[in-house]
Amino acid sequence: MIPASSLAGRQVALFGLGGSGLATAHALVAGGAVVLAWDDNPQSVEKAQAEGIVTGDLRGADWSRFAAFVLSPGVPLTHPKPHWSVELARAAGVEVIGDVELFVRERNARAPEAPFIAITGTNGKSTTTALIAHILQAAGRDTQMGGNIGRAVMTLDPPAPQRHYVVECSSYQIDIAPSINPTAGVLLNLTPDHLDRHGTMQHYAGIKERLVAGSDTAIIGVDDSFCVQIAERLERAGSKVVRISRRLPLKDGYFAEGSELFSAVDGRRTRIASLEGIGSLRGQHNAQNALAALAACLGVGLTAGEIQAGFETFPGLEHRMEQVGRKGHVLFVNDSKATNADAAAPALSSFERIYWIAGGLPKEGGIEPLRGLFPRIARAYLIGEGAPAFSVTLGEAVPYEISGTLAAAVEHAAADAARDGGGEAVVLLSPACASFDQFRNFELRGEAFRQAVYAIDGIEPVGGTR
């Protein structure tokens, strides 16, 4: 735990007692703050009380005595309208901050030289965060990973000069971290997302920009127009900007050509790393993740050799193009996290001969956006509520069956792929649907896929690297 000593001896209001909120409350108490916490969920309040946190309905509190208001990232700050607790804080002139801001203040006070890499973007945040942390750990660095992935940031070990922090930051967290100042800040990409919470794309992009604007080095993916503009704006303001691109050769920065990664200075390119044969980093989207990791790790002092070694041993993340097994020429891949068509596209574009398991609770638009990838699909196995609509979209373009259940889909896809004589065949769960018709969450769906694969005679589990 990181005791939040920056508010020692002061009274602090806190709203939101889920996992990260409760962890933050304990960190504040450990740092010497006097905390009054609340949540709209009575069960969360009861749990906090059982753990010794002082609770009280903030609607009846004297806000003039609070030095700060700590808000859980999941609670609306601005849109569709501010939460009632935010309105009370603003009316009293009390600053509204989150757990990442508390972490930033503790690092600044205790060990400002501690390397701090913060990662944001619409897509790829978690993989990039996990990849950077893995590379650092594999190179023998003292590494702490958390934030919007894994551990709540205030549950990490306290700042120390040589302790490296790798923190995934959502837009919600950045919005209440006004002092965020990473050693290396990564902005991967921007596409419309969470507009119900941010109102407009411009506001959403502006929040993401804050992370890189406060960084010693801003690492920015320049494959979309919003990020191009942010990179240009920061450079004009005098910031150190490192551009990365998975699509285009750059005059200055880091870019990918196929599986090869290059650096460029004044138009002179140097091959610096390779993703060839690394299954956990397959696909153009992972090239962007790897470029960001490369730039960030070089920025905190690692060598190209250390980074290459980290790439080669990266296991990948569960349920995100996770290689779970192989039988002969058939590879089984769990991409259960792909809960809409856009999320399924990277996996479908990464393999040439696919036995595709899709379906579940469908999202608006279905799988029509994936039509350009249909030629890669040898056969589709449709499950859940989305099966009838998906079958209409596939029509005569892709052979399909309505399997109904995930277990049946795995069994049938494995048998068909085993008979495929065209080289490597991939049984891919990338549902392009939410899981809620048959599973409580995408993690349980992915675990069911994994267990169905492991039940196949002769299957060899794989760890995701090669």
Q: Would you mind describing this structure in some detail?
A:
This protein has 466 residues and is α/β, with parallel strands linked by helices. It folds into 3 domains: 5-97, NAD(P)-binding Rossmann-like Domain (Rossmann fold, 3-Layer(aba) Sandwich), CATH 3.40.50.720; 100-313, UDP-N-acetylmuramoyl-L-alanine:D-glutamate ligase (3-Layer(aba) Sandwich), CATH 3.40.1190.10; 322-461, Protein-Tyrosine Phosphatase, Chain A. 34% of the residues lie in helices and 22% in strands. Strands 6-7-5-8-9-10-11-12-13 form a 9-stranded mixed beta sheet, sandwiched between helices. A hairpin with a 2-residue loop joins strand 14 and strand 15. Helix 5 (125-138) packs across helix 10 (284-299), helix 8 (201-213) packs across helix 9 and helix 14 packs across helix 15 (442-454). The mean pLDDT is 94.
The structural domain count equals 3
Structural class: alpha/beta
CATH topology of the largest domain: UDP-N-acetylmuramoyl-L-alanine:D-glutamate ligase
Per CATH, which architecture of the largest domain?
Answer: 3-Layer(aba) Sandwich
Number of H- or I-type helical stretches: 15
Helicity range: 25-40%
CATH C-level category of the largest domain: Alpha Beta
